[in-house]
Amino acid sequence: MEKPTLIDKIGKVISIAGNFILMNLMFLLASLPIVTMGQAWCGLLTAVRYNIRGDKWQDGFKAGFKTRFWRGTITWIIMLAVDLFFMLDMLSQIEHMGFDVPTVMACIVFALMIMITFSLQILNVYVPTNIGQWLRNAVNMVFKVPLELLGSAVLFWAPFVMLWRWTGLFFYAIMIFLTVYFTLAAVAGTLALKNGLIHYLLDARASGTLIADDSKKHQPEVDAEEEE
Question: How many Å from the N-terminal Cα to the C-terminal Cα in the chain?
Fold first, then answer.
């Protein structure tokens, strides 16, 4: 097997960068109605996984967007309303009271809300269980991988917080958001939560709560070496 040349390596980097830009564009276009942003994020997460495995990311985006469509819609609307409410409360506390006890509590509550709602959205893609198990997994995930989950949620919400509170900074970085930001956030979140997601997927299979139809039609399988 021939050793890859410098030209081959440069071509591979350009190809990956091009795919990331196209995935980001697809996410933004699918998010335009706002109420579909949750499904678009599911599509982007699945597209990233397909791309890492060497499959067509377009097929992954389509599959992820369709996966548990109505549950994804409801989850996103709740996620948006709840997280925005607590975010505005937290920012108001910071602005009027400084960092006193109520403000710290507001920050903690906001962190918990974005972690729980974000875990619901991610598990909706990777572990399509019945509703009861889905909710339990979301709460368990907060305790199992709190730092990874918080980091992934913060990456997702950062542009919205910037747009609301630091509009100038948001527009200063708008080209990053339009080209690759959300794809990079999806990649980082996928890598950070990989072990936790595999754990929940295997548990769901073992307990029989995994929804077989969605798993076969839309869900990316866990690689064999990951299951061992």
Answer: 29
> Under DSSP, is residue 35 helix (H, G, I), strand (E, B) or coil?
coil
* Type of residue numbered 146: P
Q: Which residues, in sequence order, are bridge partners of residue 129?
A: 210
Question: Contact at 8 Å (CB) between 31 and 24?
Answer: no
Dist. CA 221–CA 92, nearest whole Å = 43
Tell me the one-letter amino acid at 1. M
The pLDDT tens digits along the chain (228 residues) read 567 676 666 767 777 788 889 999 999 999 888 888 888 888 898 888 888 787 888 888 988 887 767 777 887 888 788 777 777 777 776 766 666 677 777 778 778 888 888 888 888 777 777 788 888 888 888 888 888 898 888 888 888 888 877 888 889 989 999 999 999 999 898 888 888 888 888 877 787 777 754 444 444 444 433 433
Q: 191, 87, 204, 104: which is closest to 148 by C-alpha?
A: 191
Q: Are 153 and 115 in contact (CB under 8 A)?
A: yes
**Considering only CA atoms, which of 143, 161, 159 is closest in space to residue 107?**
161
3 state SS of 99 = coil
